[in-house]
């Protein structure tokens, strides 16, 4: 069963994970906080039944964090630099990316807009971010359609030059990107997002007990991170 958190709680958790993972140290309390931040997106992905993605990222992220804590201090030279670079990129940016993906997958555009309005965010930020919520999933669908069309024409299997293959993929995707952005922007404005007057919302959001518990836990983590 999925945890139904308020979009504001998800955004707060996303920001906290980004701060702790990027700026956190590899020792002491900050290392424990980094382990917690690595586990949270994994648990949330399991809650929305994305088991395959959760398993893949769990192996990458937990492996990278453990290597930072136990392998890197015990190696030296070029091997140490290579391991530190690879693990650093995965461990510091992976959880934030994974949490952002969870937010996009578990939050509808209506819920996101309602939450942004309750936080009194200006429309100049709300509208582009709401378009972004639908942009990347739509772009992925377009890419899959192009890939299927190439397979039907037996293009993808016979091309040996990778640059030619990229051209067959990149050019249609770039052409579709402009059209997708224009269509989503027009759809947002058609729904009245550009109107200055107050709007009503069908979806209902609100801070419930799990939201307050998670908000308190995130606040404690940030306090420990900045104080210690």
Commentary on this structure:
The chain has helices at residues 7-23, 28-47, 51-71, 77-106, 109-118, 123-152, 162-190, 209-227. It starts with 6 loop residues before the first helix and ends with a helix. With 228 residues, it is an all-alpha fold. The protein is built from eight helices and no strands. Helix 5 runs antiparallel to helix 6. It is flat, with a radius of gyration of 21 Å.
In short:
By secondary structure, the protein is mainly α. Helices cover 77% and strands 0% of the residues.
Report the portion of residues in β strands: under 5%
Number of helices: 8
Question: From the alpha-carbon coordinates, what is the Rg to the nearest angstrom?
Answer: 21 Å
- Uncertain runs are none
Structural class: mainly alpha
What is the overall silhouette?
Answer: flat
Overall average pLDDT: 79
Helix fraction, binned, reads over 70%
Count of strand segments? 0
- Tell me about the largest β-sheet: none
Give the distance, in angstroms, between the N- and C-terminal Cα atoms: 36 Å
- The sequence of SSEs as H and E is HHHHHHHH
Give a topology summary.
Elements: H1 7-23, H2 28-47, H3 51-71, H4 77-106, H5 109-118, H6 123-152, H7 162-190, H8 209-227
Helix pairs in contact: 1-4, 1-8, 2-3, 2-4, 3-4, 5-6, 6-7
Keywords:
228 residues; mainly alpha; 8 helices; flat
């Amino acid at each position: 069963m999925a945890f139904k958190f308020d979009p504001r709680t998800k955004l707060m958790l996303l920001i906290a994970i980004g701060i702790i993972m990027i700026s956190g140290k590899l020792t002491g309390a900050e290392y424990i906080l980094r382990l917690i931040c690595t586990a949270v997106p994994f648990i949330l992905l399991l809650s929305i039944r994305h088991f395959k993605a959760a398993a893949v990222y769990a192996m990458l992220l937990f492996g990278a964090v453990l290597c930072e804590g136990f392998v890197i201090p015990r190696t030296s030279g070029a091997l140490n630099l290579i391991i530190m670079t690879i693990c650093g990129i995965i461990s510091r940016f992976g959880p934030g990316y994974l949490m952002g993906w969870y937010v996009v997958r578990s939050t509808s555009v209506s819920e996101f807009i309602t939450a942004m309005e309750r936080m009194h965010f200006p429309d100049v930020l709300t509208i582009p971010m709401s378009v972004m919520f639908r942009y990347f999933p739509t772009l992925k669908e377009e890419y899959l359609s192009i890939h299927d069309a190439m397979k039907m024409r037996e293009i993808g299997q016979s091309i040996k030059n990778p640059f030619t293959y990229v051209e067959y993929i990149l050019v249609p995707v770039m052409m579709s990107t402009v059209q997708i952005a224009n269509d989503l922007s027009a759809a947002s404005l058609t729904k009245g997002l550009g109107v200055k007057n107050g709007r009503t919302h069908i979806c209902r959001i609100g801070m419930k007990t799990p939201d307050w518990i998670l908000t308190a836990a995130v606040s404690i983590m940030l306090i420990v991170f900045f104080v210690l």
